[in-house]
Amino acid sequence: MGASYQEPPPFPQDLKVNVQKSFMVFPSKETARKSMFLSNIDQVLNFNVETVHFFAANKDYTFQAVAEKIKNALEELLVPYDFMAGRLKLNPETHRFEIDCNGAGAGFVVASSECTLEEIGDLVFPNPAFGQLVAKSIHNLGKDDTLLCILQVTSFKCGGFAMGFSTNHATLDGLSFKTFLDNLAALAADKPLAATPCSDRHLLAARAPPQVTFSHPELVKLNTHLGQAEANAPVFDATQENLDFQIFRLTSTDISKLKEKAKAKPEARVSGFNVVTAHVWRCKALSFGDEGKDIKNNLDRVSTILYAVNIRPRLVPPLPESYVGNAVLTAYASAKCRDLKEEPISRLVEMVAEGSKRMTDEYARSVIDWGEINKGFPHGEFLVSSWWKLGFDEVDYPWGCPKYSCPVVYRRKDIILLFPDMDDKNGVNVLVALPTKEMAKFRSLFHELLLA
Predict the structure, then answer these.
(1) Name one Pfam family in it (predicted).
(2) Domains of the chain: total
(3) pTM for the full predicted model
(4) How do residues 114-123 score in pLDDT, each as one tens digit?
(5) Structural domain contains residue 211
(6) Distance (Å) of CA 322 to CA 81, 256, 305, 364, 367
(7) Which of 26, 24, 169 is nearest to 109 (CA)?
(8) What is the helix (H) or strand (E) element at residue 220, kind and residue range?
(9) Which one, 52, 184, 405, 410, has least CB within 10 Å?
């Protein structure tokens, strides 16, 4: 067993993208004007998420036909997803963000690249140039007219193409974006919706009065009420350090062997996410710091890892699976670096699993109520953000499933990303950005601890 890691491969830094058309699209039917309540989870996620979905050429569908089908499907989809054609606004009385479902429209861009998919190279490795496949705005709109959804379709010289989405995170989380894509694909195939979206965000409203029944060390208070802080305040502060960036690939065999090693009892069930996260946590925590600093002090340092948990099935009663808002909260695990170094992997996996088990109905409600009182964000040493099992590449469009789907990645020391592999559906790619010395330690630990 031994995972491979990959230095940045040669890839084009300019995809030579030319925008051909840029315009607004609107719901295909008139929708009711209303103001949509946003939960306390939605409130702090006012930033854009950019994803790119690559498709191989299909002889039965020209790019022009694909672009037209996607545009028409999006127009239809903006009826049940009317809020995606709305605008975010701050209510001056409540100091909370709301969505004005005013039918003002979403953006649509048609573009072409002078590259082939083969020239782009390894789609798994996040090329900063992928950002050229996602439109940031639509021309001739006022600077205050900020769209919640823009879709760009870009053709490649080989006949393949990409769909690039920019969506405001307050509208959808990863799971509801997957449902959004399933519905887009269904409408493009002239089929009914795959799932009817449930957009009643009052299901995650705070209790009255708020009841914070747990301490929440995973959250940091900013001492302002929701909606009063700067709208695009970051969840994590980006470091100004120069960072190396590498992918560590774990095959399905690697993960299976790790899971066997992590079983405290033969009958114990260990999830792939928990064992990969535990392994990454140990490597990240022990690679931290300067060589000149006291090793003992570093081993006494407490490391806190954060990771997302879907609360839909954990609430009482459970949320509908098709709930469209953000229904993911941040779980955490904390330990001294000494314990992370000396404890067996089975104990680390238990600590990660305990963070998820902590997320009961009452705990989730306590987090939401905490947000009613405080403006705050998740707080820890780093966040594991998993796109591994979201299934974006399983969405079945008339022209086939994507070759690969991924977010546009920005290099962050405090965020480690898990992505699916193109060739091994049960394998995972771990994307890490660290200063050079820390990266060398991380790489060494990653392999040593796999083989231990």
Answers:
(1) Transferase
(2) 2
(3) 0.93
(4) 999 999 988 9
(5) no
(6) 12, 31, 29, 19, 22
(7) 24
(8) strand 219-221
(9) 410
